[in-house]
Amino acid sequence: MKSYLTLIVLFIFLAVGCAHSPTSIVLPQARSFPQPVLLASSSNKIPVKSSRKPVDAIDDEYKDDQNLDYANDTFKEERVEIADPLEPFNRAMHQFNDKLYFWALKPFAQGYNTVVPEPARISVKNFFSNLGFPARFLNCLLQTDFGGASTEFSRFAINTVWGVGGLLDPSAGKELDLQKQDTDLGQTLGVYGVGHGFYIVWPVYGPSSPRDTVTIGGDCFLYPPSYIEPWYVNRGVWAYEKINYVSLRIGDYESLIGAAIDPYVSIRDAYIQYRLKDVKARKEKSLLFKDGNVSLPPADQSLPK
After folding, report:
1. What is the pLDDT of residue 82?
2. What percent of the chain has pLDDT over 70?
3. Treating both helix axes as pointing N-terminal to C-terminal, what angle do 118-131 and 146-161 enclose, rounded to 10 degrees?
4. Which domain holds residue 147?
5. Are residues 167 and 68 in the same domain?
């Protein structure tokens, strides 16, 4: 009998002991923090605020993360989508321009690099940039950016006289600090509220839109080399300018498409965001929008879906 009692007591002891011991390992819930997301289809790192919310309790090792302001302007970057009804045509033109770059333009530019030293190529770029003064000056006036127009006029005068016809850029030095106003007719229309319209890729010229296509015509009309005769000399000068420009930027295009899942979408998104940023910058300099004097529809808000 005693042996039975001993067995019963031993059984109860073991049962109670097993009930209080862990039968499985439960992992703590993973911490959820807002994570910046890099959009693969953009040329810039555009952090996007995640919809996941942080947990209430955060360990000491994660307290440093609280110094990150996920509600600042960086994470509120406006993103605009543009209609692309011509996508089959655009993709074909994108492939054409891509092959043109890798099979012709880049090899010519690389050969040009080996023959012409970089300081000389920079001087050539300065010369052609100086010839673009009329278009930049006129667009600054149309945008009522009279400060920019004054800067452009001063740059042109100084660089033409003291810059040996524009080969040098003394106006951009520390003493004067007169920077080129990168503006065009497409930006001017954007300042006045004209949206992009739909996306289009032109052969040779690349990404554009109905609004920005106007810039191509405007540049030709206001660009002095456009009036060189005969026409094939004009086209030769244009091609030389592009080759010289690419020789100073080899690798930029490769970096843009290198990590992209779809290079076509990457270039399209980068172009739209770039133009949107330019128009916003020009609006901030326009006197039309100072002190709320004029209320115009914001550009790129009437894009077709």
Report:
1. 82
2. 69
3. 130
4. 87-292
5. no
